[in-house]
């Protein structure tokens, strides 16, 4: 009995020792984990700040990352105390917490299909997560195959188990493809609110029978977040980023093509989007009743294009709009409603391509704009612009923020705007100077000339005033505004000089010819001068010639696109033939070696036979 008791006591001591060891191990592990998390969070903060600085980001809020408290050493989110009190539902975290929260993936887990990636000025961002939606998985696989055949540099967010499938579909573009493995339930917008919140959102969705799952809302509301993460990583050193739903390419029209051929069509300080019907903005800034007021809903959220600094600003405003929706007890199940409301609230951040400007799908037509060289006339909210068109005048395409509200009434143009019941802003001196620089570059006018600049400024203000008056009159009458007047290559001429030029043979001149300047063109000279009527015939002829030239140019561009497609196919066929030729060459060499071997064997056999015959004859 004694030995058994000693054995039991020994076992008890051993068990206590094991439990103590396990407890100490847990405590030490928890302590090390805390320090590891702190170090990694600070490392992420530094990395994100440096990345934003390297990419040229100037958005202070985007660089405002987590901070460490001296008292506890814990990582506190810079906006950890941001909450919103939703009436009747209690407090919820602010969506703007996503601006500073650590992404749910490690940068080291990002998959580069090829180690050495190319540098590209443009990056296409997309994502695909298998979830119950209004389309089955088979259709999405076909659409995904179409989109992933594009030649553009691409960042793809998807499930980890789909990485191999993406890799196979992008085998033609491994050097310009990055895949970010991410689980659906890791999307930050989904984890920001409890499941009960999303269940309530789905229950309130008028189209819940079509959408079927609130996980779909997570994907829709994560588009701008995915783009900003692609900007943070910026694997291709791009400055233009385009979000495209992976289901936008439902036919093979763009297969194996480069979608972004004309990045100059994207305004430098606005997010470019499609208007799937005639833009008719509602009176309120927050709008999601597209079911009862369909005419006020025009936003297509399938594709968005913008430069990286604009994207960062737009993402913050988008999250702010989500907060405002919730504060008014408005559902956020429709991302297009939130996107349109963001543009209604901050109209200077958005430009729309009217559906009738593209020869493509009303919802997916932005790809047509990015792919084709055309003079698109964008629509902007009346609060953000003085007129329609690509920054109002074609030669102002790359001029950032060219219009500001006049602050004085010394200028008669400013008086004209301020007296109008629907006043619109006029260009300031800096904007005119930038426009003049763009115009000189377009028409190869050479160095800056102060006299010519004053003439250009007078003409520019004159046509701006005229276009503003036409626009305001059209608004009051409820009619479509006329096509804006645009300054041509003679935009720095005085009125007298311009008349002298147009009276010459054909009304043409060398664009670099310089005549002695006289009195600048004043606003009244351009519109009310009766002598202009005498030139209407020649001007009409010139307009017809320009129209014909434009048609010829469009036809040439279409033909060029066709030739490029054929050239791509021929290159692919050439590569296949070269591979076959290489294989045939190897086979030919192999056959030659076999023939040489057989010849040598034949020679040896003949030699042996000849020697053997001689031996037999000797014996006889």
Total beta-strand segments:
14
Query: What does the average pLDDT come to?
Result: 77
Structural class: alpha/beta
Strand order of the largest sheet: 5-8-7-6-9-11-10-12
Uncertain residue segments: 34-80, 386-425, 505-532
Cα-to-Cα separation, first versus last residue: 108 Å
Which of globular, elongated, flat, extended, rod-shaped describes the shape?
flat
Strand content: 5-15%
Helicity level = 40-55%
C-alpha Rg, in Å? 34 Å
Tally of domains: 5
Pfam families: HtrL_YibB
InterPro entries: WlaTC/HtrL_glycosyltransf (IPR011735)
Keywords: Membrane, Transmembrane, Transmembrane helix
Biased composition (Polar residues): 515-530
Folded structure, characterized:
The chain has about 625 residues and is α/β, with parallel strands linked by helices. The protein folds into 5 domains: about 1-75; about 105-260, no CATH class; about 260-385, no CATH class; about 405-535, no CATH class; about 545-580. Helices cover about 50% and strands about 10% of the residues. It has helices at about 1-55, 60-65, 135-150, 165-170, 190, 195-205, 210, 215-220, 225-235, 310-325, 335-345, 365-370, 410-420, 430-440, 450-475, 495-500, 525-530, 530-535, 535-620; strands at about 65-70, 75, 85, 90-95, 110, 120-130, 155-160, 175-180, 240-245, 270-275, 300-305, 350-355, 405, 425. Strands 5-8-7-6-9-11-10-12 form an 8-stranded mixed β-sheet, sandwiched between helices. The protein has a two-stranded antiparallel ribbon with strand order 1-2. Strand 3 (about 85) and strand 4 form a beta hairpin. It is flat. It starts with a helix and ends with a helix.
